[in-house]
Design a protein that fits this description.
The chain is an all-alpha fold. Helix 1 packs across helix 4. The longest helix has 25 residues. The chain is extended and about 65 Å long. The two termini are about 50 Å apart.
């Protein structure tokens, strides 16, 4: 056993001890249900670390995410279902099978060909025909988790559809559609129909996601950056007004707009 294997074994033994008879009361009480929020939280902390571009922070957060994987594997082991070795073996088997151009005889020259073939293989693994073949009994979209954040789910659905040719021909067409959706939203507002307003807001966001995907931009990352930008600039406005001995609610819209423009010039993008 080399050092890397020993480290993984050490982590497995640690979780087993924590869950054992004389282990930690909190760890022993955890179930798959109670761990769900923590798994999501750890995944998002990895995203934060990636945005920070800090290798040490990324190493730590990946470790926390790995701990969640090992913990779930331990629960499965206790139930007699599988263990971490089975998880690793299944992942290796799956990734080898999905790269026939590397580990087999397939000739796939472009990333587009790779992704289309990937969908065919995934469909075959699930015992259904690929959506690119005739008389498919199930949808190409079946493998996308319904619990995904809506923005990411929209991205994944349209990305999968685009791999079989169901896509916009150019960015200009997407932006034209975006304008159409904006017009329909104004019409819904005039009608004072809350249901239609909800639908049109959703359509507007959905098309915006398509624009991001078409340009090769992850919409979640783009929105996170815009959120951070708004956070920095708004805090600048708050701080500037408080330095004058006043409360934000007492400032005029014009004053706040002026400070916002000042923030745009003085702060990083």
């Amino acid at each position: 056993m080399n050092q890397k294997q020993a480290d993984i074994e050490k982590l497995i033994n640690l979780v087993e001890q924590l869950r054992g008879e004389n282990g930690c009361p909190w760890d022993r009480e955890q179930t798959r249900e109670t761990l769900k929020p923590m798994l999501i939280e750890e995944a998002y902390e990895v995203l934060d670390a990636l945005d920070m571009d800090d290798p040490d922070e990324l190493k730590e957060e990946l470790g926390d995410l790995l701990f969640q994987v090992v913990f779930h594997a331990q629960i499965a082991r206790e139930k007699g279902e599988f263990d971490l070795a089975d998880v690793i073996e299944r992942s290796h088997e799956k990734m080898t099978g999905r790269h026939p151009h590397i580990f087999g005889d397939a000739e796939l020259k472009t990333s587009v060909e790779v992704l289309r073939n990937w969908e065919d293989i995934k469909a075959a693994e699930k015992g259904v025909k690929s959506a690119s073949l005739p008389e498919s009994k199930r949808s190409l979209l079946d493998g996308i988790p319904s619990k995904l954040p809506a923005l990411h789910r929209a991205y994944q659905m349209t990305a999968k559809a685009s791999r079989i040719g169901f896509d916009w021909s150019c960015l200009q067409d997407i932006l034209k559609k975006l304008q159409e959706e904006a017009t329909e939203l104004l019409e819904a507002q005039d009608e004072e129909s809350s249901d239609r307003i909800m639908d049109e807001v959703g359509d507007l966001l959905f098309v915006a996601v398509n624009a991001a995907r078409f340009l090769g931009v992850d919409p979640e990352t783009a929105l996170r950056r815009s959120n951070d930008k708004f956070d920095r600039r708004f805090r600048y406005v708050e701080t500037s007004i408080k330095k004058k001995g006043r409360e934000l609610k007492d400032a005029s819209l014009q004053e706040m707009d002026d400070l916002w423009e000042e923030a745009k010039k003085s702060l990083l993008p």
